[in-house]
Structure formats: C-alpha cells, structure tokens
Design a protein that fits this description.
alpha+beta; 3 domains; four-stranded antiparallel β-sheet; globular
Length: about 290
C-alpha cells in the first residue's frame, strides 16, 4: 500500500510541475475504479482514507473537467482543506473556467453564492487542534469565515481592513506559516466568490477592448494593455463596482470590428481567445435585443 501512496504523491507532483491536468483526470479515474473494486474501506480504513485523500487532490487538479455544479459545492464543503495541501495549486484557476462557461451573469452569481455557502457550511478543520493544544482560535473552515465576517463585514472586503486583519489578527499571529497560508487561501477564494460577476472586479472573462485607440485585455478589474508582442502593462479600472454591462457598452468595438480583428491572431493566442469570447457575448446580447 505504501508503494501506491508514493506513486500517487509522485503523480500529483508530476501534474503540478507539468500542468498535465488531463493526466490527472486519467489517474483519478483509474484510482477511483480501483478503490471501488477493493474492500480497502473495510479492511483498512486508515489506508483507505489516505488513498481517498490523494484521489480528492487529483480531482481538484482536474476539476474543470467536471460539469456538475453540485460536485463543485461538495468539493469545497468537504475537501477544501485538501486543496490547500497541494503545492503551488491555485483553486481559483479551476473555478474560473467553470464560472466563465455560465454566460448568464445572474446565474453565474448564483453559482458563486452556492460555492460560498458551501464553504460557510464546511466543518472541515483548516488547522489542527492538536498542533495548537486546543488554544482558543478558529479551527474549522466555517469558523474562520465567521471571523472574516466579524472583522471585515458582510459586504465587499475593504483592502485596508483586509491588510490590517492579516497583519494584526490575534488568531493569525498564533499560526505557523503553513497554516497562515491556508487561511490566506481561504480568504482569497471566499472574497472572490463574494464579488458579483456583474462588476469589473468580479467579471471572470477576459475581454478585448479598445480604449482611446489602444487595444487592451480586461480581466477582473485590471486592464492589460497590448503593445504588439511586448510585455503587457497593467493598470486599474477606477470604479470596481460599476455594472460590467455599462463598461462594455462604453468601451467595446463593434461586432464587425472584432470579427475583422480576430483574423489577425493565431487561434491559440490569448488575443484570439478573448476576442472570441467578446464576439460571443455581443452576439448573445444582440439576439436578446431582437427577441
């Protein structure tokens, strides 16, 4: 059994080092099938739990291959802590593609609310009681989220208050570095799920726009200025809470211009992807107006 666990750890390391997420899906299906056929759960519950934890980590690595919204909720409610144990893993990179696939922004916000509520219900231990000798600090995911709300409020988190919380919280000061990182990861995901996709700060799609004759890529409150093949320059949208539709109406080129511009880029380029997304959005918008 030790060899199997070692192999699973090696697979997770390989996937994260090489971004081989299709390989993670293949391994996940193989291990899942193997576990279902064995009696390991009854024969050796401890080893089964270890193996299942690796299985869940593999699922996180290939999460955007899954479509069922309820699966996403279950993963966050029951297993968020395992995601924080995967080296160099950014859970948002897996959630964002699923959110982008939901074109209706109200439906997208509803999905984000469901994920947020799943974390709020989570009874998983983010940090270990034994490690801190049962000190009076939050331990579970849900307890940390309650502490976020007490200190940062129910609405959008203020950046200054957030920085002060991370620097001065009496609870966070007690944490070891690895647990501090887990709390920061939870705060980051929870905060992103709180922001409406109808605002620039919460809009997950990358959108190509033209502002004062300059081609830019808009992404979650930031504008990346495209200057040929040179590196991208980043600047900030002034009003992060403005309605995304109003920003698009004010700055986007016409559908015909976008379709002509699309011809200038390779299908594998970032520009091609973002222009295609915007063309799709505009076409849907025009269809709604006609109907």
């Amino acid at each position: 059994m030790a060899n199997i666990l070692d192999l699973l750890q090696q697979e997770i390391t390989y996937v994260t080092d090489n971004n081989d997420f299709s390989g993670a899906l293949e391994c996940y299906n193989l291990v899942k099938g193997w576990l279902e056929k064995t009696n390991l759960a009854k024969a050796n519950p401890a080893e089964y739990d270890q193996c299942n934890n690796y299985l869940i980590k593999l699922k996180f690595l290939c999460l955007n291959y899954f479509d069922d919204i309820d699966e996403y909720k279950e993963m966050l409610e029951k297993y968020f802590v395992l995601a924080t144990e995967i080296p160099m893993f950014d859970l948002w990179d897996k959630l964002a593609p699923r959110l982008i696939s939901i074109s209706d922004l109200d439906a997208r916000d509803k999905f984000k609310a469901g994920l947020r509520e799943a974390l709020e219900r989570s009874g998983s231990f983010l940090v270990s009681r034994q490690k801190y000798n049962d000190a009076e600090i939050p331990y579970k995911v849900s307890e940390w989220i309650k502490d976020f709300i007490v200190n940062l409020g129910l609405d959008k988190f203020d950046k200054v208050k957030k920085a002060e919380y991370l620097a001065n919280s009496r609870f966070i000061k007690l944490l070891k570095d690895e647990d501090n990182d887990k709390v920061k990861a939870l705060l980051d995901i929870y905060e992103k799920l709180k922001i409406s996709s109808r605002t620039p700060g919460g809009y997950e799609n990358s959108v190509l726009m033209n502002i004062d004759g300059q081609d830019v890529v808009f992404n979650q409150g930031n504008v990346e200025v495209i200057a040929g093949t040179s590196s991208l320059k980043r600047m900030k949208i002034a009003d992060e809470d403005a309605d995304i539709d109003l920003i698009n109406d004010a700055t986007n080129p016409s559908l015909r211009e976008l379709e002509e511009t699309l011809k200038n880029f390779s299908p594998v380029s970032l520009e091609y992807k973002t222009i295609s997304q915007e063309i799709s959005r505009l076409k849907k918008k025009e269809t709604k107006k006609i109907n």
